[in-house]
Design a protein that fits this description.
The complex is a heterotrimer of chains A (about 325), B (about 140) and C (about 350).
Chain A: H1 2-15, E1 21-27, E2 34-39, E3 70-74, H2 76-87, E4 97-100, H3 109-115, E5 120-126, E6 129-134, E7 138-142, H4 149-152, E8 164-165, H5 180-186, H6 190-201, H7 209-213, H8 238-250, H9 261-265, H10 273-287
Parallel strand pairs in A: 1-3, 3-4, 4-8
Antiparallel strand pairs in A: 1-2, 5-6, 6-7
Chain B: H1 2-8, E1 13-18, H2 22-31, E2 40-45, H3 53-61, E3 66-71, H4 82-100, E4 107-111, H5 117-134
Parallel strand pairs in B: 1-2, 1-3, 3-4
Chain C: E1 2-6, H1 10-20, E2 22-30, E3 33-38, H2 57-60, E4 64-73, E5 76-82, E6 89-94, H3 96-109, H4 117-124, E7 126-131, E8 157-161, E9 165-170, H5 173-176, E10 185-186, H6 189-205, H7 215-220, H8 227-231, H9 240-244, E11 251-257, E12 261-268, H10 289-308, H11 318-322, H12 329-338
Parallel strand pairs in C: 2-6, 6-7, 7-8
Antiparallel strand pairs in C: 1-9, 1-10, 2-3, 4-5, 4-12, 8-9, 11-12
Chain lengths: ~325, ~140, ~350
């Protein structure tokens, strides 16, 4: 069982002092959730878990522990974040040790919540089934019907460049389809696309959960806090909300791994991945680039090719 | 009253011109007395690669109906590769804005050299007409 | 005075209400996301989500509020226009925890030395119709913080969902203004009995075991505890808990201006943002998440009690439900009571 192997490996890494700290997933107080755990002592590895609720991208914590030797549990997307961060020279002291686990695709807890009536008290995984219990209900759901949209279209579930791989590499699905939200918008008119975007971000409360959950958002001064120049205000005007999301997504061009942490963190259920996934598609189409695959290939916006596409330039 | 304001509306276009080529090209159009629409407001930048995509967004947010970014032809950049870097930013931003629902012709890009006074006036002509057809920008403007 | 309001009359009751009052009630923005908003059409009101993401504090202390507008005119003093509340307001559908929270925030905004006119005016002009909680969630610990799912304190009218109808109790003078409402029927003994049953059932469900009692003194001894070094690690420093919390009340004031005109706006701010305490010199007295997380918990459970005599937490559970990394304030409180290295399920080492 992967969870057992993970704990054993973690214990080995901590006991041998290969790492000072392991960041992983632990179970906590609510069903359908895990929580990030920070383990320093070998005995602590018993709190590590691995299941379909390990939705956070733990690499966002790496900057907090740059002085330590850190081992971090990563899924396919998370591992690519580390490669991307490495290219941006974010690990001057110790490169993190990647404990890669081939991902079975994560379950969208918000989708599960919508499928039942009442508070979920317990959720247990049993192979490809999800047993969900509440006070007045007890249902069996098919796990594959409740996956996150980014997970549905993922083509890199096996962590690349992992130092340790727990479990066997999974067979990757070829890219068969676009992200469902992006696909739905492709055929629509500009007015309809703007309306969709507007409607989603109109719920935004500027909590910046999306920004903080993203491992690539690490600027010491974010553009929203800039006062000279003052790009946007802190109020909830529709124009500023649009500006914030357009720019935050755009700042991920060529850097985003499509992990979906932004969308999962949002308390207002804004479908943020319809922005980042489009940008990833663009970058692949224009420059043949996918974040975090080749450790040596520079991100597209930090380089150029004299033969780049320029049909759009007069 | 509504009709009146529509017929008297003139597109406002912000033009970022690189100092060494496009701005000089604009100058040449001026000294050669070549007519071009007065709808553009020019901001001179050292290089088209200096353009931060936030400039374009801020322009639209502030009520500009269209934005033009113009630089040196590939290979002719005063800073050697600035326009190449700018080209990638422009391409990705343009596709993204179109996807979001900002009309295709609101944000445009061109290469205009210091000797191309005529081309400059043609570009301005085209961009102004394109934006005029689209009407004033309604989405995204900060009221 | 107790009345019965049939659910089939509810929309018309709201329509009537909206002719005299500005109505504020929960609205579902998308499935699973609700906020308190000014109602334009009675059909918008949605009472199905027990804990809307944004709390009722929005009604008295909006996230973005224009304090005044000004316009420069030549050779004259600037014209300043203030925002005034026109009509009387009704806040309908907030739960007892949110109402309790309004009193907590009120102590800060309406004080001995200073009164916030924006808050005060809204407070004075609002009639509060609270809705009881028949099915508290497992994350609800209002009964640990001095509240309860059927607590009526602070309400002008108190509503209980009986299935096919609501029981409405008029509690204050503002409430009595509704005594002649044409949709209110007499409440019978059957209704009263049902209320008692529901109340008893609900009281058993909220969590009374969280040791909030005495936490102020316990935290006094913990200011430099190594506990803070660990607990902050998973917090990513967003503002979700602070913005969703019904008692958090920090704000920032900015001027949004062009050359000729502008407005002064008050926006919510979060003590968990790094720049919150950043000084002009560049010094930041709360430089890392450790200091900021400590500050937040101390403010809620130590500083506020020192100033106002009770903890600034109503046990609504929003911070537990919506935190992106599942920070659980209950575990933090439990830790302070045991001073062990293990909380109830926690692993604070």
């Amino acid at each position: 069982m992967i969870q057992q192997k993970l704990r054993e490996k973690a214990k080995e890494l901590l006991s041998s002092k290969t790492v000072d700290l392991i960041i992983g997933y632990g179970s906590w107080t609510l069903p359908l959730r895990t929580t990030p755990v920070f383990i320093r002592a070998p005995e602590g590895v018993e709190s590590l878990v691995w299941n379909s609720f390990c939705e956070n991208n733990l690499t966002t914590y790496l900057h907090k522990f740059s002085r330590l030797k850190v081992g971090v549990v990563v899924k396919g997307c998370d591992a690519r974040s580390v490669t991307a961060l490495g290219l941006e020279k974010r690990f001057p002291n110790h490169r993190p040790l990647l404990i890669g686990i081939p991902c079975q695709r994560m379950v969208d807890r918000k989708k599960v919540k919508k499928a039942v009536k009442g508070e979920i008290l317990q959720a247990v995984e049993q192979g490809e089934l999800l047993l969900v219990k509440g006070e007045d209900f007890n249902v069996t759901l098919k796990r594959e019907d409740f996956l996150y949209s980014v997970c549905q279209v993922c083509t890199h579930r096996t962590p690349l460049h992992a130092d340790v791989l727990i479990g066997d590499p999974v067979e990757e699905s070829p890219l068969v389809d676009l992200h469902p939200d992006v696909k739905a918008l492709e055929g629509k008119s500009p007015e309809e696309r703007w309306e969709f975007f507007q409607k989603e971000i109109s719920r935004c409360i500027r909590c910046y959960a999306c920004r903080e959950a993203c491992p690539m958002c690490y600027c010491s001064e974010c553009f929203v806090d800039s006062s000279r120049p003052r790009w946007i205000e802190k109020s909830l005007s529709p124009s500023d909300l649009a500006f914030y999301h357009i720019v935050r997504a755009y700042h991920q061009t060529g850097r985003c791994t499509g992990c979906g942490a932004c969308e999962r963190a949002c308390p207002m259920d804004i479908r943020l991945t319809h922005l980042t996934q489009k940008l990833n598609q663009e970058v692949k189409g224009l420059y043949g680039f996918e974040t975090g695959i080749q450790p040596e290939t520079l991100p597209p916006l930090s380089t150029f090719n004299p033969e780049d596409e320029q049909e759009f330039i007069k | 009253m509504e009709n009146e304001s529509i017929t008297t509306w003139e597109p406002k276009i912000l033009a970022f011109l690189c100092n060494w080529c496009s701005y000089a090209g604009a100058d040449l159009a001026g000294t050669s007395r070549i007519q071009y629409p007065p709808n553009i407001r020019v901001i001179r930048v050292p290089c088209s690669g200096r353009i931060n995509p936030l400039f374009i967004l801020k322009a639209l947010q502030s009520g500009m109906d269209g934005v033009l970014v113009s630089g040196c032809h590939p290979g002719d950049c005063h800073y050697l590769s600035g326009n190449y870097v700018g080209r990638r930013k422009s391409a990705t931003l343009k596709q993204f804005l179109e996807y979001l629902g900002v009309e295709k012709s609101r944000v445009q890009f061109s290469w205009v050299s210091a000797a191309e006074g005529v081309k400059f006036s043609q570009v301005i002509q085209e961009v102004t007409e394109d934006v005029r057809k689209l009407g004033p920008l309604k989405n995204f403007v900060k009221r | 005075m107790k009345f019965k309001l049939d659910k089939k009359d509810f929309e018309n009751f709201l329509k009537d209400l909206m002719e005299t009052y500005d109505l504020f009630a929960p609205v579902q923005l998308t499935e699973g996301v609700s906020v308190f908003k000014k109602i334009d059409k009675p059909e918008e009101v949605n009472l199905t989500q027990l804990v809307p993401q944004k709390s009722a504090k929005e009604v008295f202390f909006p996230q973005s509020e224009t304090m005044f507008r000004y316009e420069m005119s030549e050779n004259q003093s600037p014209i300043v226009s203030e925002q005034k509340i026109g009509r009387e307001r009704v806040l309908l559908g907030a739960r007892p925890c949110d109402i309790e929270a309004i009193f907590i925030v009120e102590k800060v905004f309406i004080g001995e030395d200073y009164t916030d006119v924006y808050f005060l005016e809204k407070r004075k002009k609002t009639t509060i119709i609270t809705l009881a909680c028949n099915h508290p969630l497992t994350t609800c610990f209002c009964s640990s913080t001095g509240g309860g799912p059927f607590r009526k304190d602070g309400s002008d009218l108190f509503m209980i969902d009986l299935g096919e109808s609501y029981l409405v109790e008029l509690l204050t003078e503002k409430g009595l203004a509704f005594s002649k409402n044409r949709f209110f029927k007499e409440a019978g003994s059957k209704e009263i009995r049902l209320v008692k049953e529901l109340e008893e059932k609900a009281a058993k469900k909220t969590d009374s075991s969280i040791p909030v009692e005495g936490i102020e003194k316990r935290l006094d001894l913990m200011v430099e505890s190594p506990f803070w070094d660990r607990i902050h690690e998973k917090c990513i420093g967003c503002g979700t808990c602070t913005f969703l919390c019904p008692t958090c009340h920090c704000f920032d004031i900015t001027d949004e201006a062009t050359n000729q005109k502008g407005e002064r706006v008050r926006n919510w701010d979060s003590c968990l943002f790094p720049i919150y305490s950043l000084e002009t010199s560049g010094h930041n007295p709360r430089p890392t998440g450790r200091e900021r997380t400590r500050q937040r918990l101390m403010h809620k459970f130590n500083y506020y009690p020192k100033n106002f005599g009770r903890v600034a937490c109503v046990g609504c559970g929003r911070c537990i439900l919506y935190c992106p990394v599942q920070f659980d304030v209950r575990e933090a409180i439990l830790y302070t009571s045991s001073r062990r290295t293990e909380g109830r399920k926690g692993k604070f080492k």
